Amino acid sequence: MTVSGASVFRLALLGLLAWLLQLTVVSQITIFGVPADLTPLVVAFVGYIAGSTTGAVFGFALGMFVDLTPEHTLGVNSLVFTAVGYLAGRIRELRDPAHGLAPVVVGAAATAIAAVGFALLQFLLGVKAPVSLLLLRDTLMIVLLNTLIALPVYALVHRLLATFLPDDPRRRRRRAYTTRLSPLSRA
């Protein structure tokens, strides 16, 4: 799927806004002892709406923004968010889920993949970080919290992107038509 210039601008604005919102507001508010993490949700929903290639590129770009903050290892979030955006886009391209709660499952899976992927890459790179049951508890709480906010985040991302993305014929739903044999055709 190709993305127009207006869509690229919208995606860049969405990425910058999500990064700034996460950095300044969301990370300061803790629920269940952990802050929510908007970035994997936004990356997953861009991939889910726009496709795997757009999701991977958006994930890489947003990951680079996140990696620019001083407490992150350069490149780790870029790699993880690239995978998250690509996988969310592939889910949409392969399955085209029609259920209204599919974004909740995609958001929970994206958050879990991002958290586990980030922890695994940090461990493999030899970054000194405490590994204990608290890490598992925090990861589960972040997944739970992001699952609770997945639908509003999806609705916002969908509203911002749906009108600017080209119409994909694979995504159109077939309309049910009535025939004479259908009880709906009788007046």
Automatic annotation (TrEMBL):
The keyword Transmembrane helix applies. It is found in: Cell membrane. InterPro entries: Cell_shape_determining_MreD. The chain crosses the membrane at residues 12-34, 41-66, 72-89, 101-125, 140-165. Signal peptide: none annotated. It holds the Pfam family MreD. It comes from the Bacteria. Keywords: Cell membrane, Cell shape, Membrane, Transmembrane, Transmembrane helix. Its main location: membrane. It is a multi-pass membrane protein. Belongs to the MreD family. This is Rod shape-determining protein MreD. It comes from Solirubrobacter deserti.
